Amino acid sequence: MEFLIEYGLFLAKIVTVIVALMILIGFIFANREQLKERVQGHISVTRLNDRYEQFKDTLLEAVMEKHEFAHRKKQLAKEKKAEEKALVKRHKAEAKKKAAKESDNQKQEIGTSEAQAEKSEKSIAVSSEDRRRIFVMHFNGDIKASALSHLREEITAILQVAKTGDEVLLCLESPGGMVANYGLAASQLARIRSAGIHLTIAVDKVAASGGYMMACVADRILAAPFAMLGSIGVLAQLPNFNRLLKRHDVDYELFTAGEYKRTVTMFGENTEEGREKFQSDLEEIHVLFQHFVSEYRPSLDIAKVATGEVWFGQKALSLGLVDELKTSDEYLTHSAEGADLYQVEYKEKKNIAKKMGLAAEAGVESAMTRLFSRLAAWRHHAQ
Length: 383
Description:
By secondary structure, this protein is α/β, with parallel strands linked by helices. The protein has 14 helices and ten strands.
């Protein structure tokens, strides 16, 4: 029996060493890849109208009789063909009218107008000219606004083809994070408005702090009834281990040049002057945040909402933080009736090391979530 116990301990040690080596190798590969030149990604475009129609046809095929479903498909095909013919006819008439007007002004013959009409008819894209276009993007933010790298590429691609009358819809989810990162993300969205393209932002769950900094740039903000918005404030926190170091006779020395190069520190003894300067910096960032929000939403009572509080959809609407209560799905499906919806995504190729890292990260996150759920359940049961 003692032999089996020792053998089990030996196997446990071997497994531990192997796992540690695998983690170490994974970190080495990940760091090497970061040093390499970034792999160029590509833009992926999905026409959401086709996706919705596919969903609809799949369900109708299941609930309708076969002959009814076949009849419906034939009828839709006829209607589509008739619409295309009517559209071509209308374009032809408009082109002739325009050409005739130019002909009168320039004293040209009628034959010239007919030739111009035929040329105009061929150059017009029937399916896209009469319907407005909505370009859809998604931004799922973390503390570092990591999705920013994809967002800037997607915006650059969209602005190459967008024109007056088009719209950009950003489905935004973010609790906020680093000031500089979210400031740059908001500036990227400002490019859309500067180009004269209507920008709509839909918040289904949360757009707080830096997330709301991005949202306020929109011409129109939509929010789900229980979405959380606001948190127009600035937060900074850090532990201080100075007393712990002193207790163990550990000296910590910090060398700086410049009076306020370092105001507060984790290991040194913080002074009241340093704390006041750090607080002053936070207040200055808060003022800049308020000015930025006021610039894009001038009707907002900024003194009332810039308290760092977070509000749910209905209250956010009454305060003027959002313009309408509506989910992104509701807005998209309704818009699909009169517009062409194009979902734009920037995708990067992931190598094996990066895939392994993402898989490991997802595994750890899942394990921690299960652990906290069990602890919460156990605590509730104990009470």
